[in-house]
């Protein structure tokens, strides 16, 4: 079953390119601290699910790391997902879904992140 977004979210994020252009990224120190807490910092090829990935601000940081993570970016909003897909990030699989409906096998990830959701 595909996720259904509230109308406010559908309309509010319709201009995904503007969102992506103006949305700040995350400080490297915060990313390092989070990955260390999740026990995937320095772990090559760890599989990380980026839940509510949006336009991929966090996925982009993960994809650029030396660990060469395998990233599953889960995003229910079509425009946000297309903006992320257009980036062509190495190691990132972009999928339609949300926390209740995603094409990710149970216990198949080393970590799940939800960066600035809600």
What can you see in these coordinates?
The protein is of the alpha/beta class and 118 residues long. The chain is 33% helix and 16% strand. The protein is built from five helices and four strands. It has helices at 7-12, 16-22, 28-37, 57-63, 78-86, and strands at residues 47-51, 70-75, 92-96, 111-113. It has a four-stranded parallel beta sheet with strand order 3-2-1-4. The longest helix has 10 residues, at 28-37.
Approximately how much beta-strand content do the residues carry?
15-25%
User: What can be said about the biggest beta sheet?
Assistant: 4 strands, parallel
Spatial strand arrangement across the major sheet: 3-2-1-4
| Rg measurement, Å | 14 Å
In round numbers, the mean pLDDT is: 88
């Amino acid at each position: 079953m595909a996720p259904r977004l509230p109308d406010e979210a559908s309309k509010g994020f319709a201009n995904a390119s503007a969102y992506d252009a103006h949305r700040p990224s995350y400080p490297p120190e915060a990313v390092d601290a989070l990955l260390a807490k999740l026990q995937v910092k320095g772990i090559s090829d760890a599989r990380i699910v980026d839940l509510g990935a949006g336009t991929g601000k966090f996925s982009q940081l993960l994809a650029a790391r030396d660990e060469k993570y395998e990233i599953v970016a889960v995003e229910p909003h079509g425009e946000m997902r297309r903006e992320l897909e257009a980036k062509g990030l190495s190691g990132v699989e972009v999928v339609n879904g949300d926390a209740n409906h995603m094409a990710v096998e149970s216990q198949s990830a080393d970590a799940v992140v939800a960066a600035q959701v809600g």
